[in-house]
Each structure stands twice: as C-alpha cells, then as structure tokens.
Amino acid sequence: MNKVILMGRLTRDPEVRYTQTNNTLVASFSLAVNRRFVRQGEERQADFINVVAWSKLGEFCSKYFKKGQQVGIIGRIQTRTWDDDQGTKHYVTEVVAEEAYFADSKREGESTSDFENTFGNTAPGSMGSDFEVSSSDDLPF
C-alpha cells in the first residue's frame, strides 16, 4: 500500500506547467511539515516535501493555495529519474496528490473567498457541511 497523509504549510505558491504531449496541467509546490518530536533545547524541525497535483486537482491547488497557507494532502509517493543535458542522472521523490484540503482556520476579518462562495468551506473529496450527528443515538452502530 502506498498512501501518504501530510499537513503542512506551503513554502511557495504552486507553480503550474503543462505537459508537452497532451497539454495536461500539473501544479507543483513544496510543503514544510513539522516533525512530531522536538529534542530538548532544540527548535522544532521540519521536512520539506515536494508535491505534484495533476489536472483538476492541480487547477484547484494553483487557484486557491498560497504561500504560508496550511493545507492537508492525501496521496502517494512516487520516485522518478531523468538525465539532464550533460548526461547526469537525477533522482526525485515526490508526493502525487490525490486529495487536497484547506487546514487553516479562517482568521478574524478575512473575507470569504470565491471558492467558499461557490462551494462552501470544503475541498474536493472532503465531507461537506451536510453531515452532522446530533447525538450518539443517530449512529447506526
């Protein structure tokens, strides 16, 4: 099984490119993901993880994700290699996003985004605000 769940802050705005073969949109960005534990007397460390999002999800990320924003990504790890013009082989490991979510809470005084006006405060694939359990009696188990 190849499944990755990340929550971190974007280190830069997503960069958009299109494939040469069939003009498919691909957005790439990097997440700073804090490590879980901090050694005594040291600052918290973070890992910087490259993420790519294809097609509609890439379009969503490029339009609504901004540098410094906290987001959640669900996807898979992928490795690939390529040779540059000098014949040097390069290796890269990245996360291919399959789902993307907003993880920041709305700050006081922030205006509602175009996305929230259209879709509410959820991302593609997330559970909408229609889901609500008022008491444990409503649960089927």
If you had to describe this structure to a student in words, what would you say it looks like?
The chain is built from two helices and six strands; from the N terminus they run E-E-E-E-H-E-E-H. It is mainly beta. The protein has a single domain (4-138), classed as OB fold (Dihydrolipoamide Acetyltransferase, E2P). A hairpin with a 6-residue loop joins strand 2 (15-18) and strand 3 (25-34).
Could you outline the blueprint of secondary structure elements for this entry?
Layout: E1 4-10, E2 15-18, E3 25-34, E4 46-54, H1 55-64, E5 70-83, E6 89-102, H2 114-119
Parallel strand pairs: 4-6
Antiparallel strand pairs: 1-3, 1-5, 2-3, 3-4, 5-6
Major sheet characteristics: 5 strands, mixed, barrel
- List the strand order in the largest sheet: 1-3-4-6-5
How would the global form be characterised? Answer: globular
Number of distinct helices: 2
At CATH's second level, what is the architecture? Beta Barrel
CATH C-level label: Mainly Beta
Q: Helix fraction?
A: 10-25%
CATH homologous superfamily title:
Nucleic acid-binding proteins
- Average predicted confidence as pLDDT: 83
Oligomeric status: single chain
Using only CA atoms, what is the Rg? Answer: 18 Å
Count of spatially separate domains: 1
CATH topology: OB fold (Dihydrolipoamide Acetyltransferase, E2P)
Structural class: mainly beta
Number of strands: 6
Which consecutive residue ranges, at least 5 long each, have pLDDT under 50? Answer: 117-137
Which band does the percent of strand residues land in?
35-45%
Order of helices and strands: EEEEHEEH
Distance between the termini: 28 Å
